[in-house]
Amino acid sequence: MNKVLLLTAMMIGHLFVYADTQFYGQANISYQKTHTEISANSDQWELNSNSSRIGIRGEIPVDNSGISAFYQAEYEVAFDDGEATTDETFKQRNTFIGVKGEWGTVLAGHTDTATKEIRRQVDLFNDLAVGDVKNYMSGENRMKNTLRYHTPRLFERFSGSVAVVSDEDSNQDNNDGSTISLSYQHNKFILAVAHDEDINEQNLSRAIAHFETGDFGIGALIQTAENTGSDSTNRDEVASLLSLEYHATEKLDLKIQTGQADIELDNNDQQFKQVAIGIDYNLNKSVMAYGYGAEITRKTSGASTLKDRTAGVGMVLRF
Question: Which fold would CATH assign to domain 21-318?
């Protein structure tokens, strides 16, 4: 065992010497009162870890070719109860290797789809209980066995990507998925579209726009989704989001977000509505304190209306 540890330490040391290596992380801890009716029936105070994470990443130039190899290994950690998932200390997040040059970037591994990535431009309450859009809309997929190509910046404003996802766990042939995306960015305006084909047995198209003017940031998202699996329930979804952020001072941000999803199922229809408000105070570039409240309402045809809601305070530490 000691020889194995020594060999591992020597390999890590060699990597740090010859690679531009960075250890990084984010701790996002909140204390809040949460009332749930949709997924469960509870009313309690919670200490949440909100997808806190640690990771290591680096880049290694390949001689004088202008090509670099890079890697990242990232894991979710739980500062509240020590378990990122049931009986696990660490849960794998975006972990991959790749190469890049003037021609673009190729990476392979376990990574967010481009459809999920473009949402970050407009979702102001990502990772937070009840506030995260994954609570009412589809498309928040992190896929293993992914091979992706990113274009370089084209005409200084355009970029795109294409990815294939191998469904190695399936017993069926030709059950692989794919994602394609295109984005436009000029000054403080961003427009992006992405499409998933047979990702988690679903076809999904998403478009976002984000614009900054003065002290305000305005974001919007719209998407459609439908199930494609032969054994899955028929499910058609139309969802949208609108967010507004006000930079009151250099340190203080005020934000509000609202969203909706209309879902058609075999036996009934559902409608989700979300609203969230928050305040962020940036103590410096690495530490932020915040407070927020959020509510999701679910209306189901022929059934009573249910609500999840929460309010609390928290702190984000980036390192």
Answer: Porin (2.40.160)
